[in-house]
Design a protein that fits this description.
The chain is α/β, with parallel strands linked by helices. It has 2 domains: about 1-15 and about 165-230 and about 265-455, no CATH class; about 35-160, no CATH class. The chain is about 50% helix and about 5% strand. The chain contains 22 helices and 6 strands. It has helices spanning about 1-10, 35-45, 50-55, 60-75, 95-110, 120-125, 145-160, 200-205, 220-230, 245-255, 260-265, 270-280, 295-305, 315-320, 325-340, 350-375, 380-385, 390-395, 400-405, 410-420, 435, 445-450; strands spanning about 170-175, 180-185, 210-215, 305-310, 425-435, 455. The protein has a 6-stranded mixed beta sheet with strand order 4-3-5-2-1-6, sandwiched between helices. The longest helix is centred in the C-terminal third of the chain and has 27 residues, at about 350-375. The chain is globular.
Length: about 450
Amino acid sequence: MKKLLALLLAWGLLGSTAPVLAAETEQTAPLPAWSYAQIADGYSMGLFGDEIYTDHNKVITQAQLDALTKTVADKLAVLNMPANPEQGKALVVDTTRGGVLNALYQEAAAYNFPNINTDPVEYMASLGAVCGNGTSLMLDRPCTLLEASIFANRLVLELYDGQNAGSLGLLWKAEGNGNTLYLLGSIHTDRNNLYPFHKQLRDIITGVELAAFELDFNSQEGIDEFTAMQLYSDGTTLKDHIDPELYQEVVEALVPLGMPEEQIANYKPWALANTFTALSMTDDTTSENAMALDLYVSAKASNLGIQVEGIETYAFQGKIFDDLSNEYQENYLAMTLSMYLGMDAAEGLSEEEKAEYEAALKEQDEAVSRWMEQWKTRDTEAFANDYPKDVIQANTTDELNSKLFEGRDPNMIAWADRYLKQEGSHTGLMTVGAGHMIGKTGVVQGLKDLGYTVEVVPAP
């Protein structure tokens, strides 16, 4: 049962290679240029989904407004603000710009935020949630989906910023030769109310010249190459490589998620195993958009025109899994499926085995929750103590773990060293799995050993 937790430890070292259930989104109607700076925040918080790319210029529907205000309410509830003792007056809520502002204001007015008991439109304008054309806020005009989404996005961010709230991230700063490189350790999931990020972290992301990740998430060529590596190309299918009973269990687990059997059969065990691992790390706080934090950082940077670079390649990461033995891939798939199914996978076990299995699942869930809370509060020391990288590295005989560790930390240290050695005064951001940052062989210690100053960024 300890294998369950070991798989999650490994996940802290993986790039956010897209699971096989990920869908591509085509933008059929161009978004206005001014909106791109805020798209990543709103999407990550679940204020809108992929419909923003096709329906952004349509008038928001009442159903969309209801969903939007509910998401705003959920985000504001996390702040644990005291209730507003004053009873607000009834406001007209409709799909005009004024009506949408009233609807969003009412969600904020449930709490005792500073200056909340003022005119709703004046309050929203004071937060910068709404801007007009210089002479009018155009309150009677029908409100588009994009306008409503931006109102909501600005409202949530301003209220979080006013409370010094938001996720801080496992963040260090390395300095040398006049250059600065921020080091952000990633946990490749979206849970525990991860979003929004704290303003300090958002400002760091938007203030760099270069953002580097394990993978270049904008490389369609790399993504296509990785996708091809996940698929059988020799005429065989999944059914030819794993136990028939396991095959049927995989199909029964994925078909309800919208993946037909004929598609499932094309994928290799390791690709499906990675999907089950990603699914098992989510919880009821995960946004419907399920935007892993490094994907958010990449989107935030890309939307602002910041240069994005990959430290590794999709082919390199794909080869880590593709070179696993057939036996290991089958076991890997079986274990990750068990993680995803939870106690539903315990049928047929003895009572003692069920108790052990339940304890392992609980340990798994608690470990991920701890790591996410440590990430959100920037408790780098607690994370380093809780994530036993050095122990695993010293004692691992696991086929996958050895591949995840060997050579990767040194390559990341070498990349950071090259960045810090360049001439001039530059500021960059390096976002890789948090497991790569810590430990005796990690990026933080490696840069210190090279003589650079590396410190945890103080929390605001």
